[in-house]
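Session log. Operator J.P. requested a structure for one protein chain; no other inputs attached. Running the standard single-chain path with token output.
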Amino acid sequence: MTGTTRTSADLAPRRRRLLFRAWHRGIREMDLILGQFADRNIDKLDDAELDVFEALLGVNDRDLLQWVTGETETPPEFDTPLFRRVCAYRQDDAQC
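Structure written below.
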């Protein structure tokens, strides 16, 4: 997979920027996890969820990958319903 599968032309600037950031993480695994989640959900997130997603995009890739894979415990401030959706999405996608 080379990247996003959706167009960002119909998105507001903030959503477009978050979609881009989700696909340009630095660690390819996080590109795929966050990028694919964003492709399918960025247009459905409300403003509060966008705030949480933006905060997740600010986390160091190695830390975030360890949280997503369950290798280390997720800090309480990041253990949000949206983060759990990202984790569930990754697990669902891995089973496909």
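Operator note: The two ends are 15 Å apart (CA to CA).
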